[in-house]
Fold this protein.
Amino acid sequence: MFSLSGITTALHDWLSGRFSEAWVMLIEMLLAGIAVISFFAILGLVLVLMERKVSAWMQIRLGPNRVGPKGMLQSFADTLKLLVKEGMTPNGADKLLFNMAPVMAMVIAMLLMAPIAFAKDFQLWDINIGVLYISAVSSLSVISILMAGWASNNKYSLLGAMRSGAQIVSYELSAGLAILTIVVLSGSLNMNDIVMAQENGWWIFKGHIPVIIAFVIFIIAVTAETNRAPFDLAEAESELTAGFHTEYSGMKFALFFLAEYVNVFIVCAIGATLFLGGWMPFHIGNWDGFNRVMDFIPSSIWFLGKTFLLIFLIMWFRWSFPRLRIDQLLNLEWKYLLPISMVNILLVAAIAILGWHF
Amino acid sequence: MFLARYIKSIFQAVRSLWIGMRRTGYYFSHHKEIITQQYPDNRETLQLPERFKGEVVMPHNEQNEHRCTGCTACELACPNGTIKVITKFDITPEGKKKKAIDKLVYHLELCTMCNLCVVACPSDAIVMAQTFEHSVFDRNQLTKILNNPGSKIMEGVE
Amino acid sequence: MMDREHMISCITEWVPGAKAEEGTEWTTLSIPGESWPELAQRLRDEADWQMDFLFCLTCIDWKTHLTMVYHLTSTRHRHILVIKADLPADDAVIHTASHLWKTAIFHEREVFEMFGVRFSKHPDLRLLILPDGWEGRNPMKKDFEDPVNMIRM
Amino acid sequence: MHEVLGTTTDGDLVINVGPQHPATHGVLHLVITLHGETIRKVDPHLGYIHRSIEKMCESLTYRQFIYVTSRMDYLSAHINNHACALCVEKGLQVEVPARAQYIRVLMDELTRIASHELWWGAMAMDLGAFTPFFHAFRERENINDIMEETCGARLTMNYMVPGGVMADIHPNFQKRVKSFIQLFRSKFDEYNEMVTGNIIFQNRMKGVGYLSAEDAISYGCTGPTARGSGVSCDVRKIMPYELYNQVQFDEILETGGDSFARYMVRLREMNESINIIEQVIDNIPEGDYQAKTKAVLKLPKGEFYTRVETARGELGVYIVSEGGTTPYRIKFRSPGFSNLSALDHMARGSKIGDLVAMMGTLDLVIPDIDR
């Protein structure tokens, strides 16, 4: 049966037979780096195309359908265009920060990839504080936005960056609390342990209503954290033209663009891992026949399927709702999401202590 | 009750959002509702209404004859100076001088398709054509001469 | 709703120099420019007038002189009154109406730049439509000739 | 001149919104003074699309000048042309045939619906919801097709002439209008589902951009902008022209005075226009579509003013004639110009996001403001 872990073990064995331990380590790191970067590139292309198709169908349009079969190479052509475009730096800008910001956004997005379990036994870094690591690093992403907004020397960018700062700092709280509910239930910060804890059922099914509430809050909070509509105030098109990336063009803009989609992918991957059982197949109690059929589907497919389901949900939000105003955005966080998630985590703690979950 | 109102407001908010999402979700899954026309591909089947005002043309019959008497009514009716009638004097077979058009110059780049010249024409010499693909690389190509070279006025049009 | 004769007699009583125009659709009176502020105040505030809606404010250039035209109506009584004031062409000054009808702020700015009428006590008499730093004649005047005229070309 | 760049002395931020900005739908230039996110002052700078239509019309004859007015408020081109034609007819004292009157009213109301459709989509887009825009265009496309079939153009039709309309309606016209009414009725619920009922949308609109009835009158606001503040100002009711005293319709009034009230007025007006069309469409009388007029029109010496209700408010056409073939002076009192002047008053103290919502509900068409 096809499995990603088989490939990695075979590769490791083959390398170990030829090189010393230090070299094997180095080569594997290099390979992992190349894999991550190319995965990013492909992911960006796929997600951009997906967003364009989803938006087109919701808007009773056809969407890209000219480049390549069924328009599948459209985002590839766009990337090519962005690559050959001149990357301008405005005169009054802080050159160093201005050019660093998109790279920073990209690097942070890449760092987040490390502890995610893509499939059974397929993980870049099996760190024991995986969830903590993710919530720590993801809050860094605001720095790149602030850098871009400040360095552009543009008032729209500055306003966008400031909005984004307030927004991400606030929504970090309820996202963190929503993640904590799962940590409380599974008793571990390790991604793999959390997935293994869902072997006999995903948390969203066996955690009662509090976990469903946490899931909803998590989805809302991460939509806000990734600066996507209806929370796209940092780049609110009709108000701030393009917000923090108003002055960016060419490849620098493309990096921001890519980072946005990679961030969406990562938060959805985390959501899938925590609430929907990561790469765990869908099992129903003791229907052994059904469960065996489900097991037959590779774990990587399960993981990507769940992730893309959540990505679709976030895209669905984007193309259905108008944007919030900045004060309403903060109201929603501080008056609704935060109190609810605080009560919620108490409930979950009680459930976990009393062992009421399945 | 504060709490009841609080929970009710949340419920109503989520419900209103769900109604909107249901609508977009419906269109996402029903591709028959798509209304996009694939323009350059459907050029063969594209049907413009017969009244569509695309550009002023002067119809000629098989004998290369038109109906224009050169009365300059269209030139006077035009608000933009789009039409210039350049007349000449023809000698009729009876030996009389008769006014006729030499060139009817039409500046498509100035035309606003207001149809006033067609309405003003007493002999129905000019009509609106249904063409609409007017873009050219050289602006001079937009200045057109409506009467064919060597064309004559139709018998019996005064 | 007031009838024409009543309106004319009222205004001629208030403003000695007012002259009614004949053959117009709506009651039209020509007044001297100096009496405009008091008349405007009364037209808006008197209970049986209540001309609270200035629906058109414009100017006509007659080459020899300028004429300000105010179209007034009442949202309560629905009667319409047209007030005209002649101004000299070289030094056109009239009191603003913007303290009574705020719509006049924009309309007077437009008339100011297009006809060169100066409105005394206007809160914000700047160029509105013309580009900043426009120096030259007032474009809507009859002696203004556009250097680039597509139709004449 | 003006302080356009930089900050003011007390640390407020001065921002140029426009002339190229996604929310201004054209080339409107607003210089806004910001204190944080709060608006201190809005100063519109106009004229980026000023073509001086009033001056142009002074050199055009009474037949010719009508087409130019389509370029003012291009979304209600028919109604602009209608206003001009009415004014010329008033001067000529021409009786318009009944058939032409019916056709004109039908076209006006179709134009009003088309304009409100576009406004609805564009306003939702201002608030960040992109999808309604395309849904609005689906219905608008049907109206455009009807116009194209009868008038020969989709946006700037030039269908009204002094004395009637330029051509008779197309044989398919009535059938297509009826099928449009059906389509509109079936899709109208979607508007409420996607936008009106949406909680985010309601929060964005309610209590935003408040304009009291007194201010609306004082600023000369007309149309849905004033009717949202409870000011009865529908010219079709207070000074009926053409058929409007014969058809049954309600003047839509809301008393909220905020953006949501203005939104609701426009949304309900679409339904009211459909009602008018339904009353008229089956009763178009037979007869001439155009009164007999002279080839060269000369208005008698005098002044002529017509008021017409466009989709944005009251359009006034003021012709001063010296007895010649061209107007001596022509003034278009455009609704957008007056409505825009209330923006500063409305926007002070609200957030940038609210400014966009207000501009959306004022339904600004920039060529209409600049003329």
Observations:
- The interface with chain D takes residues 55, 58-61, 155-156, 159, 163, 229-230, 232-233, 236-241, 319-328 of chain A (CB under 8 Å).
- The mean pLDDT of chain A is 82.
